[in-house]
Structure formats: structure tokens, C-alpha cells
Amino acid sequence: MASSRDSPxxxxxxxxxxxxxxxxxxxxxxxxxxxxxxxxxxxxxxRLAGAALSQSLHxxxxxxxxHSHSPTTTKLTDVxxxxxxxxxxxxxxxxxxxxxxxxxxxxxxGSDTNTVRIWRLPEFTxxxxxxxxxxxxxxxxxxxxxxxxxxxxxxxxxxxxxWDGALKHVRLATIPTTGSYVRSYIGGKDKMQMxxxxxxxxxxxxxSDDIVYSASLDKTVKLWRISDLKCIGTINAHLEPxxxxxxxxxxxxxxxxxDATIKVWRHNFHGGDQPHSLTVTLxxxxxxxxxxxxxxxxxxxxxxxxxxxxxxxxxxWFTGQFQYSGALQGHTHAVMCLATVADYVVSGxxxxxxxxxxxxxxxxxxxxxxxxxxxxxxxxxxxxxxxTEDGCTICTGSLDGVLKVWxxxxxxxxxxxxxxxxxxxxxx
Length: 428
Fold this sequence. Notes:
Layout: E1 3-4, E2 15-16, H1 51-57, E3 74-76, E4 84-86, E5 90-91, E6 97-103, E7 106-111, E8 115-120, E9 125-131, E10 137-143, E11 146-151, E12 156-162, E13 168-175, H2 178-186, E14 200-206, E15 211-216, E16 220-225, E17 231-236, E18 242-247, E19 253-257, E20 261-267, E21 276-283, E22 289-294, E23 300-305, E24 310-315, E25 322-328, E26 335-341, E27 344-349, E28 353-359, E29 365-372, E30 378-385, E31 391-398, E32 402-410, E33 423-427
Parallel strand pairs: 3-29, 4-33
Antiparallel strand pairs: 1-2, 5-32, 6-7, 7-8, 8-9, 10-11, 11-12, 12-13, 14-15, 15-16, 16-17, 18-19, 19-20, 20-21, 22-23, 23-24, 24-25, 26-27, 27-28, 28-29, 30-31, 31-32, 32-33
């Protein structure tokens, strides 16, 4: 497998190509005539086939060349005895799936093309789409009936959705706008301060503070006021490209970078030119951090790294500071996406698998399932709770262009003897 990297003086444009890979799972799907380019992502997926793939799925690295320790806080179940069934997979002629967002029973997916597809749950049927002139939807967020989509041109498109008889979306704006450039020039400000100079990698919404955050490979985070969609600040957050951002309910911002750190920022409401102040830097054991996830109560922070580890930090009840608490081991390649729901953590990796972890009351984590079926690195994942069952539904999007929906149901401990590991795995 070949990997190419541009010169240091050129814009980031990382690419790789997947050669023929076979797995043990055969599933029916339509065939796309568009070959996925797998560009702009610095990951090298494994070349595994047959027995080699099966063995890798059940073998966790006991050590990493980037780590001097061996995490001991992960309990691995006997996943080899687990079963799951592939019912259907969706493959559109959109190329690689790059982003997913879920809100109120509606799933939004972004890809290489200029189309954001809309799916309705639980039947998972396509019910609409959003189109623009720009291509490559790299990040999606839904908040307060607004849909925010970041594109490859370093701009953000905003829609308002309504439920008047049927689900409808009205285009509101593209930010930054041309008018903001003109006002910036008249005001004597640098035009480049109003937009990112590199591709956007992640979005986060803080509705209570009226802010949309966008992170970029240009090593900055920009703040956009929701009420008028104007740029109100820039955070020079890291010395290396920023891969992911996430914001807690209390307004605390987390940024993850290729410099192998996660930084924690607090909003300064009267900070003048400094909209946020750095409170602490969390080292990620010398491995670039590609994705972040936060539990609903904001008590546990997860960071997925290129070495396959998922590090996590627990917030102290008295100090309010995040303390390093361990790592989840299991993936053999870069962890590209994370999601949390209830007591579950879902990870997607360049090793072509997604793992479902359960967070126990004692702080330890158990690997409940390894979801196999994608033929490309899993780039994005979303998860939400089941209303009637003890489990969760998971959406995974891959660079192979396939979108999958999984349902993981975990039975009570008293009835675990009726099924292997007390869990059942179904793909919808």
C-alpha cells in the first residue's frame, strides 16, 4: 500500500489508495461506478484477508512503540463467540462518507460530493437531500433546528429545518460571506482573519453562548456568532493542525491536534481580544489525536489516536480538572471517529472495524462488540439510545462509500446466560 505526502510548503493534501481487500463477511449491496479516491486523510488501512483479518480483530496490541505503559483498565469479552447478522448496507454513488449527524430521528450524511443526504429513522429510508455548489462535506452539526455543514472550500453552509407538514430545509447563509470581506477591508482588518486558510476539519455548537466553532488544518479555531453568523474571534490553539473539537454543556471547549495534545479552553465573556483562555493541556502519550468524544454529563473525555489507542480522562468531582485514567486497546490502526451515548463508547478505525465499549460503574471498560463489514476505513460514526431496549443504534460511514446502521442490544446480567456475552448484534 502506497502513501504519498506533499512537500512541507504545499497545502495539506494527503492521500492513499486501498487495494483489493477481502473479508469473511459477504453482504449484498449495489455496486457504485465511482471509484473512491480516499484523499485528504493521513491513514493507511490494513491489507488483511481471510484468516489474517479474523485474527487481527481479536488481538489487541499489548504495547505501542509510542507508549511506555500498557493499559490495564480494559476488559475484553470473548468477542469470537459473538454473533451479528448483516441485513443491508447502503451504497450511493457519492464516494467516501466523511461525516454523520443525528437529530430527532433524522440522520444527515456528508460525502465527497456536493450532497448532504437525509435519512429517516427507524426505517432508515432516504427522505431528502441538501445540495450546494461546493463539494466534500467534511463536518456536520445539528443544533436548535439548524444544520451546519463544513465543506472542502473552508466555508460553512447553514440551513433551517421546519416540520410544517413535512421535513423541510431552508438555506440561510454561507459563512464567511463576501460582504464580511468588504466590511473587514473598510474597517482596516486583514481579510484573511475572517476565514480559514486551510480545510475545516470539525464543527462544534454552543447554543447557550450563541457560538459555532470551526477547527481547521490552519491550526486555528474560529468563533461564529449564531445570531448574525459573523466571525467574532480566532483562537491560535495549536502548533500543528487541529483534527477535532468538542464543546461541553458548561461551555468548555476541547481541541485535539497532531501535536499529540488535547487543550481545554474556557470562554472569557469579558476577555476582549482573547475570547478563550487555556486552562490545561492534556498530553496523549506522543500520538496525534484524531477524534474526540465527551460523555453526556461531561465527566469523561475520550481521545482517539493514530496508534490505535483511545485515551480517556475523568473529571475530578472536587477539583473539576481532567485526570488521565487509562486507554482502551483493541484497534490495530488509527482511530478516526468516536461517539458516546448512555454508558456506551463507539469507535471507528482505519482497521476497517468499529468497536462498541461499555463503561462500567468502577470506571473500567468492556469491549462488547466488533462490528465487521466495511471494506474501507471507518471515517465517521454516530450513536443514539434505544427507547424500548437496553442498547443503542449506531450509524457508521466508511471511505468505501458504504453507510451502515447497527443495533446493539445488551441484556441484563441475570439473563446473560441465554446468549453469548449477553449481547446480540444486528445490522439494519
